[in-house]
Each structure stands twice: as structure tokens, then as C-alpha cells.
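Quick one, C-alpha cells below. Sequence please?
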């Protein structure tokens, strides 16, 4: 039987033991004080994040895909990041995918027992035709979720590169993946509520993984999203402004583009670095 009390993410935070007796302002200040620790925790793992970015970009360049796999908050964060890639970078929804224990229904309502099922992860990855050319990023704040560990084990058997994102030092996940990213965020303001500091740190890491990998394969020029999808008025206006910036920078006019607002701007060749 696992001793969950030993997990950093499950420990009681002494700084917030009286949070229920605070005024509202004091309450949110205590939460904010804890949040201030997140960026430093993420900064400490930047070398591992960069290593993961490189292997993801290399996979993309070979036609591979990125899969996130997680349960609960961790799974939802993976699905969120994956869903943002097509409109932001003009890529196929197949290129970055998020899997959550219990399926799409678990995005809005917990599916009992799903995260404890290792076989379920293998089934989900098999259904997506996951293969050795792909990269799997397992996400679990505690570093011990069976669904995630089962997915990592399956990916490794296929010969795929595995990355683990967790917030507990020397976790079970960190011990089995090829690249372990472990921003240790400490005890939560609300004991065990890893949607707070751990969730925020995870979101920051995932942002970097996909953004930096897309930069490396040429989906960004300067700091402009040159492949953004024009799916609403705001994005059509952004494309217009991007074109104007590029025209000024290039010293030439791209005829007609400022009038037609293409669904996406022409992608640039892959940048192998």
C-alpha cells in the first residue's frame, strides 16, 4: 500500500493552516505568496525542458507526433495545450494530442477509477496508433498515477522517447522516463489541491514545450505567429498586423494579402537546429 502522505504534493503547508480564519484579502495574499514560488521551481528545470523541446522538434521534423497523457487536472492541462496548437501554429490536430484518463467526458466530470488503470493508457495510445516515431509526455503532479505510468511503459516498449512532468522529487515517473522535468512546487495552499501550484507549474512547462518546438520547426518568424489560423475577427486583425510588420521588415509588399486574410500565412521551411 502506497503511503500518499509522503508525497510533497500531499503535505500540509504550515503557512496556510489558518487560512480559513483569514479575511478575504489575507486569504488571497497567502495563496499569492505560494504562487510566487512557482516561477523559481520552473526555472530550476529549464535544462530538462530544453532537452525535451529538442527531441519533440526532431520528432516533428521526421513526421512524428507529440502526445500528452494524464489524469484529472494533469490530463486536462495536456488536452488544453494540445487543443491550442492548431489555431496558434496552423498545424493538424493530429500533430499534438492530449489523452485524459476516462476519455473526453473526464474533461468536465471525474471518471471514477480511470486514473488507477494502467491498461487503459495502453488502450488509448493504441487507438491513436501511437508508434516509435512519436513522443509521449506523461503528466502527473504526484509522479505516481498508474494510468500515466502504464502509458509510459507502453511507449518505451515501442521504442518511443518519453518525457515526464511531475512535481515530486525522485518520483516513480521520473525514474522511468527518458527526460524527467520536475519543478518541485512544495505543499499546496490547500492541502493536496494540485490544481494550484503544481497545476500552474505544469501549464508553464507545457507552454514552453510546444511553443519552443514550433519555433524550431519554423512556425514562428521573429516573435510572430506566422501560421496562425484566421478563425475569428481578432485573429483576422492579427494576421493583417503581422503582414504589415513583415512588409515593413522585408522592405517589400506582399500583394493582396492584407485584403484577403488567408486562413493561414504561408509556412516557412523547417528550421533544423
Amino acid at each position: 500500500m502506497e503511503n500518499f502522505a509522503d508525497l510533497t504534493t500531499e503535505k500540509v503547508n504550515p503557512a496556510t493552516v489558518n487560512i480559513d480564519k483569514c479575511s478575504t484579502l489575507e486569504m488571497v495574499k497567502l495563496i499569492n505568496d505560494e504562487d510566487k514560488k512557482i516561477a523559481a521551481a520552473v526555472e530550476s528545470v529549464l535544462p530538462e525542458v530544453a532537452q525535451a523541446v529538442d527531441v519533440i522538434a526532431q520528432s516533428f521534423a521526421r513526421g512524428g507526433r507529440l502526445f500528452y497523457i494524464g489524469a484529472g487536472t494533469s490530463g486536462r492541462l495536456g488536452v488544453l495545450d494540445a487543443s491550442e496548437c492548431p489555431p496558434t501554429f496552423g498545424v493538424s490536430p493530429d500533430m499534438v494530442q492530449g489523452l485524459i484518463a476516462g476519455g473526453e467526458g473526464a474533461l468536465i466530470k471525474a471518471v471514477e477509477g480511470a486514473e488507477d488503470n494502467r491498461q487503459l493508457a495502453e488502450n488509448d495510445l493504441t487507438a491513436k496508433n501511437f508508434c516509435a516515431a512519436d513522443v509521449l509526455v506523461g503528466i502527473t503532479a504526484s509522479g505516481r498515477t498508474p494510468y500515466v505510468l502504464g502509458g509510459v511503459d507502453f511507449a518505451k516498449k515501442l521504442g518511443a522517447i518519453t518525457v515526464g512532468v511531475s512535481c515530486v522529487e525522485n518520483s516513480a515517473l521520473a525514474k522511468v522516463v527518458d527526460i524527467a522535468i520536475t519543478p518541485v512546487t512544495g505543499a499546496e495552499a490547500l492541502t493536496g489541491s494540485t490544481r494550484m501550484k503544481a497545476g500552474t507549474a505544469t501549464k508553464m512547462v507545457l507552454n514552453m514545450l510546444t511553443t519552443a518546438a514550433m519555433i524550431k520547426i519554423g512556425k514562428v518568424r521573429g516573435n510572430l505567429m506566422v501560421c496562425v489560423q484566421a478563425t475569428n475577427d481578432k485573429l483576422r486583425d492579427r494576421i493583417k498586423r503581422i503582414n504589415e510588420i513583415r512588409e515593413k521588415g522585408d522592405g517589400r509588399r506582399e500583394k493582396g494579402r492584407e485584403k484577403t486574410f488567408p486562413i493561414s500565412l504561408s509556412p516557412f521551411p523547417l528550421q533544423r537546429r
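Strands lie at 66-70, 96-100, 135-139, 161-165, 179-181. Residues 197-216 form the longest helix (20 residues).
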